[in-house]
Amino acid sequence: MTRPRMAGEVPLPEPPPQVRAQPARLAVVVVNWNGWQDTVECLESLLRQSLPPRIVVVDNGSEDGSVERLQAWAEGRLPYEPPVGPLRRLTDPPVEKPVRMVVRPAAEAATARPAEAEVTLLVSPENVGFSAGTNLGLRHALNDPAIAYCWCLNNDTVADPGAVKAIVARMDATHRVGMCGTQVRYYHRPGHWQALNGHRFNLWTGQSRGIGHNLPVNRPFDPKKVARETDFVLGASLAVSRAFLETVGFMEESYFLYFEEMDWAVRNRGRFATAFAHAAVVYHKEGGSIGSSDRKGERSAMSEYYLMRSRLRFYRRNFPLLLPIQYGLGLGLVLRRLWRRQPAKAAAMVRAMLGLDFS
To answer: Cα(240)–Cα(260) distance, rounded to whole angstroms?
Structure first.
């Protein structure tokens, strides 16, 4: 798969057959739900990678015309305008259109071999959740025997042009690699990390915190130490190996949202290594779909609901003896929301604790 030329770029002569680019060894899986603008920016950055990946986008039952707009962007009928600011460099100039895009129904994801195109768009008729949507993309990508690694990437991210190459190099160099993360910096505060590779997790409280969270990106760090301290890789930028998927399995779909990556890490215990591609840099807008945020008081009621539901489900599946502690801590969180005069969020959390639907 060759990289499309950028607008204004001088075309290069075709290389002789013996030095043509090899088939992609890494597939990027991006789930879109009512966020085509973010997805277009993400794709613009992925199509500029120095090592071209195979790209699979899963539209998760969007109701904002995402499928039609993504097709229009690929065909060049919907112009892309790079953002203003320091990250403009990652998508400016826009890639030359048309971008070869193949659109397939999600029902064909598990059986059809990926087409030779820059982007494959799988269309789900309903929102099946982040985990199930990601799994659709992963299963489709693995139908290509050349794919050794899959990179699960949030649609509200952009990546430095060397990210794919750095991930493949790190995973190639790691014995029995299973999961691998990257630097994740804040999109709107690119001088600070959201996380280096992933999080440390407190089993008793159910709380986690990103390694390097909120620290300036000029702060030195030891990549090997970061990898050792990673309890789970941040799901916004999480690469997995084919062997990991074939042995540990795909994401647990019952979570719908949140705790998927922590569940993966628990299921992986003692099996595969966790690596850190420290040279790969991703910028994350964070919480674009349903208002999730790690800032105090800024999560939406829907985010609070799924976070509580998934936390309890995680403990019920993996650490049932600690479940009563989680219910007690959950009640404390509900009271805190009430004290902050956030009754809608408190009510959403109570519904999750009682096993009721969000609405």
So the answer is: 13
SS (HEC) of the chain = CCCCCECCCCCCCCCCHHHCCCCCCEEEEEEECCCHHHHHHHHHHHCCCCCCCEEEEEEECCCCCHHHHHHHHHHCCCCCCCCCCHHHHHCCCCECCCCCEEEEEHHHCCCCCCCCCCEEEEEECCCCCHHHHHHHHHHHHCCCCCCCEEEEECCCEEECCCHHHHHHHHHHHCCCEEEEEEEEEECCCCCEEEEECEEEECCCCCCEEECCCCCECCCCCCHHHHHHHCCEECCCEEEEEHHHHHHCCCCCHHHCCCCHHHHHHHHCCCCCEEEEEEEEEEEECCCCCCCCCCCCCCCCHHHHHHHHHHHHHHHHHHCHHHHHHHHHHHHHHHHHHHHCCCHHHHHHHHHHHCCCCCC
- Residue-wise pLDDT tens digits, 172-193: 999 999 999 999 999 999 999 9
* Amino acid occupying residue 188: H
Half-sphere exposure in the Cβ direction for 15 (13 Å, CA): 7
What are the phi and psi torsion angles at 303 (to 5°)? -65, -45
The answer to whether the CB of 248 falls within 8 A of the CB of 267 is: yes
**Tokens of residue 236, six digits:** 């916004």
The string of pLDDT tens digits covering residues 320-330 is 999 999 999 99
Rounded-to-integer distance, Cα 74 and Cα 68, Å? 10
Question: How is residue 58 written in tokens?
Answer: 């899963």
Residue 99 and residue 84: Cα distance in Å, rounded?
A: 23
